[in-house]
Amino acid sequence: MISVGEAKKILCNFLKPLPSSATHILRCLGSVLAEDVCSPHDVPFFDNSAMDGYALRYSPDITTYKITQHIQAGCIPEKLNEGEAARIFTGAPIPEFADTVVPQEIVTIKDNCLVEFSTDAVKPGANVRKKGEQCKKGQLMLKAGTILQPPHVALLASAGIAHIQVYSKPSVALIVSGNELVEPESEILPQGYIYNSNHYTVKAFLQNLGLEVQAYKQVCDEKNLLRECIENFLSDHDVLILTGGISVGEYDYVYEILQELNVHTLFHKIKQKPGKPMYCGYRDNKLIFALPGNPASVLTCLAVYVKPSMLTMMGYKNTFCPNAHVPIAQEFKKKAGISQFLKAKIKDSMVYILGGQDSFNLMPFAEADAIAEIPEELSFVEEKTIISVYYL
Prior knowledge:
Elements (H helix, E strand, L loop, with lengths): L3 H11 L5 E5 L12 E2 L9 E2 L3 E4 L7 E8 L12 E5 L11 E4 L4 E3 L3 E3 L11 E2 L10 E3 L7 H9 L4 E5 L4 E6 L3 E2 L11 E2 L1 H11 L5 E7 L3 H14 L2 E5 L10 H7 L3 E5 L3 E2 L5 E5 L2 E6 L3 H19 L10 E4 L4 E2 L5 E9 L2 E4 L16 E5 L5 E2 L4 E6 L1
Parallel strand pairs: 5-6, 13-16, 13-17, 14-15, 17-21, 19-24
Antiparallel strand pairs: 1-12, 2-11, 3-10, 4-6, 4-7, 5-9, 8-9, 18-20, 20-21, 22-28, 23-27, 24-25, 24-26, 26-28
Helix pairs in contact: 3-6
């Protein structure tokens, strides 16, 4: 049995990002850039107007200009002579020889063809977006390692970039084992059965990371059926997550099956509560997590181990670090020699340990927004002690 820190270190040393692939920018939110992106063009592509107004060649000696053309966005303008002005609209190209745009709010129009304004109200070169002012051709726009968000998509699209190289997202399969499980859609819950919350817990958790479960199976506690399902899923997916069947009960077959299938063990059993029986291994670079069946154990292991592993495979950095270090709002006692993960809520810059810490009890998660960690070497934590937390 190993410590929480040792389990994290093993995963950190083993995991690496998946290969990158060219992905459309509308499908890359939350993905990580695998290479630098430089602009293929000057942006803007041409000098253009920053507002609705009148484009002209500025002269301090001229206050009245003749309107000779109208320029909308998408038009090709004619050249502009001295003393002439072009009615122009936001984003429209600046005509040749023009250098200034006068806002429409400060001009006077005469005879529908002359525009007048005070030269004191205008600076030469005003209201013109210059070619390449946003970025020059070949200029670095985004660095490798950038986690892509909507503003990045806007920037890429503005430069005419529709596809980029991002680290691939892992293909995930899920097996939930147990004879007693009934899907929540069932209108009848037979005596002795429970609803299959782990199925929905894992799927929802992964969806929050931008991942989908590509294959799912609920399997009863029958060794041959479970073995066949594990074998099939390992062949086709990057990650296999199992819940249930990893403890030491008479019908807990998962560890035995994984050994028979030549899965290499990274670790099995961690000095933590809940989630002590957790297993992690690999075969042919396919990662396997076997989580205990208790719902709180599943959520804890997802937050502390599975989530950072998935993010590492997607190209994220430093994923196994706690999300924050926050003072605890109340003293807490526990058994030394084992780390304890607790359902918690962060409020007013403090972390509050919630009631209902039993591993079967999901009710506190209606309020919880974090998992708080009390390290194994401590048996007592004083109020306002700084502790690590993992966001749910």
